[in-house]
Structure prediction request, 316 residues.
Amino acid sequence: MSNPRFPVWAALVGSGLAGVLVAVQSRINGGLSQELGNGYVAAAVSFGSGLVVMCLAVLASRRARAGLSKLRAELAARRLPVWTLFGGAAGALFVLGQGLVAPLTGLALFTVGIVAGQVAGGLILDRAGLGPGGRIDPTPLRLAGTALAIVAVVVAVSADVSTLHAAWLVVFPLVVGVCVAGQSMVNGLVRAAAHSAITSTFVNFVVGTAVLVAMALVSVSISGWPAAWPSSPLFYIGGLVGTVVIAIAAMLVRAAGVLLLSMSNVAGQLVAAVAFDAGIPLGGGLTPGLIAGSAIALLAVVIAALPSRKRRGAAG
Prediction:
């Protein structure tokens, strides 16, 4: 039994637009963290608001409710491993990084670190055949694209050698980027089992919210509750944006594969992150090194994506 797939080009365009939304979410959550003075609470608020949206979506969708039943059946029959339910933990780490790390490094450098982690993680996961699209062997150009993504991090960080803490801060986005690639993989598996992207996204937000609320409670017990909350509603839509991003990834990962999905997604992230840092920066704004690093990372996306698009199109 085969599920209809999106055309690869459409999956790449959709994932790229989702990447723009990721940068928007990073800017929102980073701003909320700065306003509250507590990145843990900001992350919990963002993910928690997304969970509220997904609860409403599940209640409104008969297919999503049926998906929960199918998911339970797949788990009971051990056709779906339990560990596939924990993609939300990677999402929690990503949102936490938006609040804790992005305001210190700036959105562009944070995104370049995420890029390198995503493309490396996507390459490994596709090669291992762990995604719903099966095993996808790396081509020489995919390997070159992944190497370029790593070079992009080095260029972006070395531009700020006067503050060595930036090099350490970018390690966190690198690790989170690998986790985000894995999140796309497991969410795609859950969606395939439940036959519902809403169900997959709901599970993601349940897990992520639980992780972040636990962290926020520890933080509040140590440093206290935020003294003031921003009045603008724009600071509270990060969770809504996240639901859209995760649902898109779950729908498109089968068509594009983990690596290509990650590549097209981060292309959108990079373009939007540079635009944000040029106009309304979280950190110190753009530097020539950050612009060069972002351009190299974007080149890595193009190099790694084009060969697979041709190969898969010919095969389909």
